[in-house]
Design goal:
Length: about 400
Amino acid sequence: MTYTTDAPFEPMDQFSGVAGDLRDPYPAFHHKRVETPAAVLPDGSIEVYPYELVASVMRDNTTFCSGSIRELMSVVMGPYPLVGMDEPEHRRLRSLVAQAFRQRMLAHWDEDLVVPVVDEMIDKFADRGQAELVNEFTYRYPVQVIAEILGLSRDDHEYFHPRALAVINVAVRPDEGIAGSLELREYFAKVVEARRADPGDDLISELVQAELDGEKLGDEEIFSFLRLLMPAGAETTYRATGSFIYGLLTHPDQFEALRADRSLMGQAIEESIRWEGPLLITSREAAKDTELGGLPVPKGSMIVTNVGSANHDPTRWDNPDEFDIFREPQPHIAFGVGVHMCLGMHLARMEMASAMNRLLDRCPNLRPDPDRWDQDDVHIHGERFRSPTTLPVVWDA
């Protein structure tokens, strides 16, 4: 099967499947944290809700392994999906890949790649004084940033964007997801071959040259990582940025404080990711008989870690359902915790900061569009992935 773009993925379409249409899951999570901190779901899996319980599962990769994730993800991401690997195999691959994400590279990416992509997006609507920021901005810029970092041709953006989205949405449209994955592998094979022959300063060149104790990454390991990085980085960053913008637009006093003092940007991003992270849940598998919250957990059980619930735990944050960029800093686990903490979290933060800074710089007095905000019923929703599907705004052009 060859992937076709006859019915391409659009942001709105994704909410009818993998994302879901739930507006506010947090009241139900509050009840579950107290009444059933670990609960058996209808399919036999076990979901955990309190912060400490979720964090303990994520930290203990001996008792709770990632093999089940690997089995599911290898269908579209190849035999070496980093997030689905356990030690010591995971440590080796992560150590090699992490060399491409060192601080010097991140600084170079922000100044030379991220900001120019963001500005190019804003150029298309800056003079209009109005825009719909999901379709025109948040949905489009992260995948272009990833492409620039990988050193991919701009002429190919329309080729790999729908395929990347098909990979991340394989559960909803499996045929397209698998076909898109195979075509991305073929595409990346040509790029990797070219970079081995003539390395540049892009991430793929870094990956083909990465070496640790005399070991290098194999081609299939690189292909698997690229098929994880492109869709995951684009999907989660676009959702996180959209929710960040929504949080600020619906809390004008905090938005005004950020306009006046950009040093608040870092804490504002952390609060947004805690308050409405792009991904509510992840999973592990019990590698042995154990217990969680007093509930017996047989070996082989699927464990659903509810990150969204954990990040709204009132034992850790006062008024956790409120968006408050001034709250006392407290580490969240939207990026995970332990050995599988998100490798691209610093890149995601950087992209969100650059996007918001340039919007503030170039769209003075950015605010909700009064003619469309209520009419379009602007809100965040989703049962697995969460973000707004529309953000109609105006500014003083």
